[in-house]
Each structure stands twice: as structure tokens, then as C-alpha cells.
């Protein structure tokens, strides 16, 4: 509150010279102790080239899926800034990439937007997935649906997060039918958590004993590294080493500005002042990676799909089972935010402008809807909105555009 009061006193005029903008930004840099992000502060920093490459082979391997038809890379592609470019991911039985997977109409809908993997290997990240179902507490304990005992057999929380899609039916396992050869799905049955983990791990160990086109190079490199079997703990550690080393963040324009190696336009500077001032963005999008690693609700429309009952997505409450966590989701990083549309946990915002407006005026989204059951059921979602959003003051279109111009520098 002290920071906001000081900034508010300083930033009283919207019409200022370039020198005054720099003066205000210098005060902000001091108050918020802004520094360029450290992209080399990653997990698995000491992984060898062979370990990272083996992780890459696994990232691209369809052997990890029940039907041998999908790999991690299908939802995390270079051309979409390590996402899939879709509102909701398309998992098993999907064909093609990007919109091809949706237009084909055959794949399973994964009820959440695929998060970019850029920078997630950095030690600044302590929560993974939109609902934080894998994370590391302040006490250093790794928690997940697998329980802390099993989770701590992995190298770190990123390694645990790396194998979670392998345990989901819509993402990699696939369905179980009478005529299916899907041994992973058959072994899983109705099992949950640790039992499911063990069942999947045992089948994958056997699958990697079969020397075929997809497994040969993996088997040979694993043998070179002294790995006797490809169980899920080993796979998680290798996938984590690849993700952390391959998808490191890079220096942004704002990083260069903080290092005094680049300049921002006047519009970008005004946007930065709004971000740290009257926009209150830094209240949640804090730190070098612009995330407080916590969970908030901005009242996002539920949409037609969700992983919980009645097609809802109750967010963090699906992990903690606490009422106060209803419809809360992890604060996403803003790194490379310009290149990762659509936005939101359900991909309901096509543009950066739309999701920014949602923070201070959710009525804009709901006013575009027909009076349907979904519209009439909007009350609980709107009621969940974080109180801090009520303090945002963006009153002119020019302020909104300046803010977006700043976000595009991150």
C-alpha cells in the first residue's frame, strides 16, 4: 500500500515529457527493486548434453502415449511459442497441429488452455499448471496428486509436473475399449493417483524394451547413460532437464531497458507506469517473471467445457477442496505474453486487449452473450473475483493501449 501511495502521488499527470516519464520510471524501479530476469537460474542446470537430448527424444516420443499417437510436442510447438495455439488443447486422437487439430474434430478436448513452457524451468517458478496441482511450498516440500513421498523421489517439482500429462486419459493415455491394444489404458482401469502412476510406469517400462523406430535411439542413449529401465521417475527427470534447458527465457526489451541497454517508446513508458501504478497489475504480476505464484479469480466466463462436474472448471478448489479457492487460477507469467494467444485458463480471450479489459471490466465479456443458462449462472464466477481488481483505474482508451504496448515488451 505504501508503494502504491507513493507512486500515485508522483504520477499525477498523464501528459508529461519523456524526461518526466523516465523520472517516474526510475522511482518505480527503485520502489519495486526491478532487475532484469535471470534466465540461467534454472533447474537441471548441470544436466549433460546427452541427458538433455534424451529428454528431447522423450518429449517427441509417442511411446509415452497409450495409442502411440501423441507426444508432448503436439501441444508445445515452436511456431506457437511452445503452446498449441488453441483455446483448449486437443489430446489423444488429434490430427495435425494448431487449428488442424480442432478442425479435424476427432481428438479429445483437454479442458484447459496449454500453457507455454518458456521459462518454466526457472527456479522462480514454484507452481505448475493452472490449478497448481504440482508445486513446491515455502518449506521446500513438493506436493502433487501423487503425494509427497512419491513426489520427492523426483529431482524437483518440474520433473513431477512433466509426467502428469502422461497420467491423464484425454492427454496421453487414451480410452479403453474392447478391441483396443492400449495396454496403458487397460492397466489403469479406474485407478487413481499412486496406483495409476505405478500402472502406467510398469507398462511404459515394457514398451521401451521393444526396439522399434520410435524407441531405438532412446534405448541406445539410455544404455550409454547407464539407465537400465525407463520408469516414470526417470522419464520425469529427463523431460524436466530438457524443458528447463531448451525452453529458457530470453532477454526482453524491458530487461534491456532495466540494464540501460535499450529505450522504450513514450507509450511503453506510460504503460509501465500504469502497470505499476493505477493499473495495480504488479499486485499479482510481480517479480522478474511477473507472477506471484499464487491463485486469483478475474471472473472468467466458464465456457462449455471444464474438468469438473457439470462442465465447470472450479480451478484451485479442485486441488484444495476449499470453498475460498473456487474459480481461482495461477497467476500466469507475462513473459513473451504477446506471442501466446489465446489467453485465460480456457482460452476464451482471443487478444491481449480482451484479457486486460476482463481485469477491470468483466461486464464487457458477459454483455456480448445471449441470455442463456450459462449467462444466468454467471453470478458465482463474478462473485469470486479478487477484491484488488476493484482498485484498477483505467479510464481512457489511450491508457489501455499504452498498457498493452508495455506488456508486449516483456
| SSE class | mainly alpha
Please describe the biggest sheet, giving its number of strands, its sense, and whether it closes into a barrel. Answer: 3 strands, antiparallel
- What order do the helices and strands follow? HHHHEEEHHHHHHHHHEHEHHHHH
User: Low-confidence spans: pLDDT under 50, at least 5 residues?
Assistant: 9-15
Assign an overall shape: globular
Please state roughly what percent of the residues sit in beta strands, choosing from under 5%, 5-15%, 15-25%, 25-35%, 35-45% or over 45%: under 5%
Structural Rg: 22 Å
**What is the straight-line distance between the termini?**
24 Å
Number of helical segments with 4 or more residues? 19
* Arithmetic mean pLDDT: 90
Q: What is the spatial order of strands in the main beta sheet? A: 1-2-3
Helical fraction equals 25-40%
Describe the structure.
This protein has 410 residues and is mostly helical. Helix content is 38%, strand content 3%. It contains 19 helices and five strands. The strands form two sheets. The chain has a three-stranded antiparallel sheet with strand order 1-2-3, covered by helices on one side. The protein has a two-stranded antiparallel sheet with strand order 4-5. A hairpin with a 5-residue loop joins strand 2 (134-136) and strand 3. Helix 3 runs antiparallel to helix 10, helix 3 crosses helix 11 and helix 13 (266-276) packs across helix 19. It starts with a helix and ends with a helix. Residues 9-15 have low confidence and may be disordered.
Summarize the structure.
The protein has 410 residues and is mainly α. The protein has 19 helices and 5 strands.
